[in-house]
Amino acid sequence: MDQCRCGELATLTDGKPGVIRKGYLTHDSGQLHYRCCGDESLPLLILLHQTPSSSAMYLRLMPLLAPHFFVLAVDTPGFGNSDPLPADVSIATFAEVIFKAVSRTFDRPVLVFGHHTGAAIAVQLAFDQPEFVRALALSGPTLLTEAQKEALPSAAQAVSLDEKGSHWQEMWQRLRAKDPEADLALTLRETLLAFTCGDYYEASYRAVAEQDVARQMATIQCPTLVFAGGRDLLRSAVVPSVRLLPQGREAALPEEAGTYVCDRQPDAVADLLRQFFLEIVEAG
C-alpha cells in the first residue's frame, strides 16, 4: 500500500462509509489528487469530473454510493489539486495517467463513471484498457457534431486579468450561464477552479474535440450506460452513443437536470449508477 494512502484510508473501515477522505496517488510525472469513501474491499468505482471542475463536484454523490462501492473520485491532471502534465494535453494522456496511478495502487478491474469531459476520459480508458474497465456509465457523452467540435474550445478561452478585477466578473458570468439556478456557492467553486486550472480549461476542451470518440465507442465491449439531463447540452448525443456502443443502453435523468446534475440531483444519478453497477457486479 502506498505510504500516501495509509492515513487517508485507515478510518474507512470504522462503520462510516460516507466519510470522505483525501490523498494522492503517484504516477510517472507527478501526483494525482483524489477523494474517496466506502470500504476498500468493495468493488472499485472511479468518478471522473467535467471541465473546469474537480472531484469536489462529487461530494454529494459519493456518500450515496459508498454503501455498495469503494468510491474513488480523482482530479484530472492539471485540475483541482492534481499536478499538470509535462507534455501536451490530450484525452489519451489524461486516461493513461489515471490508469497508471490507479492500477499501481489498486490491482483490480474497475467500474467507471464520467460526466462530460470525464465521460470522454472514461471512453478512452475503456478503449485503451479493456481488461481494466468492467463497465462504463457516461453522463453527457461527448459524441459531438462537427459544429460542436469547432465551437467547444472557444467556450473556454482564457480570460485576461486586469487591475479592476473584471476577469472575475467575466468568468463568473460564463460559469453562471451554465445553470443560472444553481446555488451561488456552486458557481463560486467552479469559478475558482476555472482560474486554478489556467490554460487547461481551454486545452481540455480542445482535447475533447480532437478525440475520435465515435471510433472508440464502436469497439468498446463492456456494458455501458448512457444518459443526460433534460437541460444538458449533450443530451442529443445519448441515442447516437447507445447505437454505436456494442453493449450500450440508455437511461433517463430528470428533465430539469443540466450540467451540474451530480451536485444538484445526486440522488437521481446515484439511483442509476447503483442499479447498473450492482447488476454488473452480481453478474460476475
TrEMBL record:
<keyword id="KW-0378">Hydrolase</keyword>
<dbReference type="GO" id="GO:0016020">
    <property type="term" value="C:membrane"/>
</dbReference>
<dbReference type="GO" id="GO:0018785">
    <property type="term" value="F:haloacetate dehalogenase activity"/>
</dbReference>
<dbReference type="InterPro" id="IPR000073">
    <property type="entry name" value="AB_hydrolase_1"/>
</dbReference>
<dbReference type="InterPro" id="IPR029058">
    <property type="entry name" value="AB_hydrolase_fold"/>
</dbReference>
<dbReference type="Pfam" id="PF00561">
    <property type="entry name" value="Abhydrolase_1"/>
</dbReference>
<protein>
    <submittedName>
        <fullName>Fluoroacetate dehalogenase</fullName>
        <ecNumber>3.8.1.3</ecNumber>
    </submittedName>
</protein>
<dbReference type="InterPro" id="IPR050266">
    <property type="entry name" value="AB_hydrolase_sf"/>
</dbReference>
<feature type="domain" description="AB hydrolase-1">
    <location>
        <begin position="43"/>
        <end position="189"/>
    </location>
</feature>
